[in-house]
Write a structure and sequence with these properties.
Number of helices: 13
Strand order of the largest sheet: 13-12-9-14-17-18-19-20
Shape: elongated
Bound molecules: cytidine-5'-triphosphate
Largest sheet: 8 strands, mixed
CATH topology of the largest domain: Rossmann fold
Mean pLDDT: 93
Low-confidence stretches: 1-5
Distance between the termini: 27 Å
CATH superfamily of the largest domain: CoaB-like
Number of strands: 20
Helix content: 25-40%
CATH class of the largest domain: Alpha Beta
Structural class: alpha/beta
Number of domains: 2
Length: about 400
């Protein structure tokens, strides 16, 4: 993840608060990740944070002064009230790591240093990334403080579970810097698909012949994954039904793993009841072995051929359940791309079809880019050349949003 297009977040101003836990050593990587995306990053450090990481490191990485003192020495004619200016400038106040002490102060409105003063003064959304010893985290006081803060609209990214610096195992790890940067992107993204329920099928299907062999195709799930991430960033509630893939989906999507076309059909039938939009980006097998053999086919069996039968066509099967839902299909074509795709759209009762040119470099399976056409019953909407799958995902979602 990382360089999704769609909305330009680069002009946004992120205030990064760092408090004094051992996980502060990860804060420079968070600052780096945010500046790499083009965010303007301003850092405020508590006094104890400076025991773990130096202001010089953060100043070097962000290219800006680091703030920590409530009453710094100012030039004689400076008259800006620092904590108010920082608070007003922020589009988001991210505190990572947020210690138990910091959250306790925020929950009770205590403002005894620059960081907590800014947290009280800002109107920007606040995102906390708690990190501490497992027993400190599960303590009733900490849990109650977190509940209080959530009830006030503060976002809290749950700590990860694993080995803790103090020697204990459990919940309390600061999530990886990349995960925190992704969360910042999501919080700041324009939510033009807020609450829209999107069901996306991704990847190939695998049709088993025996316990060791199967029929599949070249799909990697990249296009479906780009759609899932873009929809999540824009506020949609996303459910992914995925065939076997090696990519990771956006952390906010619910993922249902399936293997065969038949399993995918059942998962789509179930998921459809709670969906406004269906995007069938999966490359579903058209043919499946007629018989599955429980034991491995041996060389000595002298197998000459494998009998195949047609798999269920998912879109055609669920067509009667469509009602008001918006259905988008994909078509992988090597020739007559627009004509074949238009025919498929009509045959399968779709509201939109995205046709990819496959079999050429920079488009189709496993590629990071795609070229092809987007068609609706009104005609060709867009003819795109070698476009990143992330950007294409946002373009497809723009067209869907206009039609909901
Ligand atoms: N699809 C489906 N069920 C299948 C095969 C495909 O629902 N058994 C969906 C795909 O997810 C895609 C659309 O139908 O959204 C078109 O898929 P494609 O493989 O291009 O078309 P086919 O219908 O399989 O036609 P052909 O193989 O002849 O091109």
């Amino acid at each position: 993840m990382g360089n999704t297009t769609g909305e330009d977040l680069g002009t946004k101003n992120v205030l990064l608060g760092i408090t004094g836990g051992i996980a502060a050593y990860k804060a420079p990587l968070i600052a780096r990740g945010l500046t790499n995306l083009g965010f303007e990053v301003h850092v405020i450090m508590s006094e104890s944070a400076q025991q773990f990481v130096t202001p010089l490191t953060l100043r070097t990485l962000t290219g800006r002064p680091v703030y920590s003192e409530m009453f710094p020495e100012l030039p004689p004619n400076a008259c800006e009230v620092e904590h108010i200016a920082l608070a007003d400038r922020a589009d988001l106040f991210l505190i990572a790591p947020a210690t138990a002490n910091c959250m306790a102060k925020l929950a009770h409105g205590i403002a005894d240093d620059l960081l907590t003063c800014v947290a009280l003064a800002t109107k920007a959304p606040i995102l906390l990334c708690p990190s501490m010893n497992v027993n400190m985290l599960s303590h009733r006081a900490t849990q109650e403080n977190m509940r209080t803060l959530r009830a006030r609209g503060v976002s809290i990214l749950e700590p990860a579970i694993g080995e803790l610096a103090c020697g204990w195992e459990g919940a309390g790890r600061l999530p990886e810097p990349g995960r925190i940067v992704d969360e910042v992107r999501r919080v700041l993204y324009q939510k033009d698909l807020e609450g829209v329920k999107v069901l996306i099928t991704c990847g190939p299907t695998c049709e088993d012949i025996d316990p060791v062999r199967f029929i599949t195709n070249r799909s990697t799930g990249k296009m479906g994954s780009a759609l899932a991430e873009a929809a999540c960033l824009r506020g949609a509630l996303v459910k992914v039904i995925s065939g076997p893939v090696s990519i990771e989906y956006a952390p906010w999507a619910e993922v249902v793993e399936v293997r065969s076309a038949r399993q995918m059909l059942h998962a789509v039938q179930e998921g459809l009841t709670d969906a406004d939009v269906l995007i069938m980006a999966a490359a579903v097998a058209d043919y499946v072995p007629s018989v599955y053999r429980d034991s491995k086919i041996k060389k000595g069996d002298r197998l000459q051929s494998i009998e195949l039968s047609s798999s269920p066509d998912i879109l055609s099967t669920i067509r009667p359940l469509k009602e008001e839902r918006f259905f988008v299909g994909f078509a992988a074509e090597t020739e007559n791309v627009a004509d074949f795709a238009k025919d498929k759209m009509i045959r399968k009762g779709l509201d939109m079809i995205v046709a990819n040119r496959v079999g050429q470099p920079g488009s189709g399976f496993a590629s990071d880019t795609n070229s092809g056409v987007i068609i609706t019953p009104e005609g060709v909407l867009d003819d795109f050349e070698q476009m990143g799958k992330d950007s294409l995902a946002h373009k497809i979602l723009d067209f869907i949003r206009e039609r909901l």
